[in-house]
Amino acid sequence: MDPALLREREAFKKKALATPSIEKKKRDDSQFKDESKKKSKSSSSVSTQPKLDATNYKTMTGSSSYRFGVLARIVRHMRARHQDGDDHPLTLDEVLDETNQLDVGNKVKQWLQTEALQSNPKIECTQDGKYIFKPVYKIKDKKSLLRLLKQHDLKGLGGILLEDVQESLPHCERALKHLAQEILYITRPTDKKKILFYNDKTATLDVDEEFVKLWRATAVDAMDDAKIEEYLEKQGIKSMQDHGPRKPIVPKRKKTTQKRRQFKKPRDNEHLADVLETYEDNTLTQKGVSIK
């Protein structure tokens, strides 16, 4: 080889060793390959799932809220039918047809037929597999309503909620209008709900107006029973001492006194208690008489 080229080669090596250089490491592409594979798998799984659109969202059976929405719509429709006077039972297909829900899935239909409608307290299933609304009270007209109120009054069961009557009685407003003189309406102060009572006219009393004015003028809303009783005692009135719920008296247990045990004497030879026996002169003495 030409010696000039060898000298240039050696000079180049020395220069290369003298200048610092940064080495670039090769990238590990295995990690990026794994991540790309995971992304491709997730995208493929998403693509395989059914898409939600306007044509098949009712047939999808995954959400429980959709199922209970269908059930609530059925119950509302059956209640409205009953309040309008339609009391004939319907099949499940007829109910879905009247509620415009014929496009529900088969799983939802099976759930309605086997679980939801069977256990719903507002739906009654007949023997032939049809469904009808189940009201709180079985009343059909104003006579049955008046009879129910009389039974509650005689048995002391109290009143009936107006909303239960409206739910149970078809054409309720018309019947309540006819029975306006036979029914008393009381508003419950806790929840402002109206309660119906039978207006028993045999129990009406003529009360003096002065007494009514005094009764209405006396305000005892902020006083409890203890304060009222204390006020009456100060006024010398003791008529309320025997009224109100009585506290049950717990009977006191008697202390059992332990008796000392008396040791009984032996009863052998009691018939010889009065006989004295002496062995010196072989004599027996009984009641002052001695016998040899």
UniProtKB/TrEMBL annotation:
Annotated family: Belongs to the TFIIE beta subunit family.
Known function: Recruits TFIIH to the initiation complex and stimulates the RNA polymerase II C-terminal domain kinase and DNA-dependent ATPase activities of TFIIH. Both TFIIH and TFIIE are required for promoter clearance by RNA polymerase.
UniProt xrefs under InterPro entries: TFA2_Winged_2, TFIIE-bsu, TFIIE_bsu_DNA-bd
Assembly: Tetramer of two alpha and two beta chains.
Keywords, in A-Z order: DNA-binding, Nucleus, Transcription, Transcription regulation
Biased segments, Basic residues type: 249-264
Residue ranges constituting the TFIIE beta domain according to the UniProt record: 59-140
Protein name: Transcription initiation factor IIE subunit beta
GO molecular function: DNA binding; TFIIH-class transcription factor complex binding
UniProt region (Disordered), positions on chain: 1-58, 237-274
Biased composition, class Basic and acidic residues, residue ranges: 1-13, 22-37, 265-274
Subcellular location: Nucleus
GO biological process, one term: transcription initiation at RNA polymerase II promoter
GO cellular component, one term: transcription factor TFIIE complex
Pfam families per UniProt: TFA2_Winged_2, TFIIE_beta
CDD domains (UniProt xref): TFIIE_beta_winged_helix
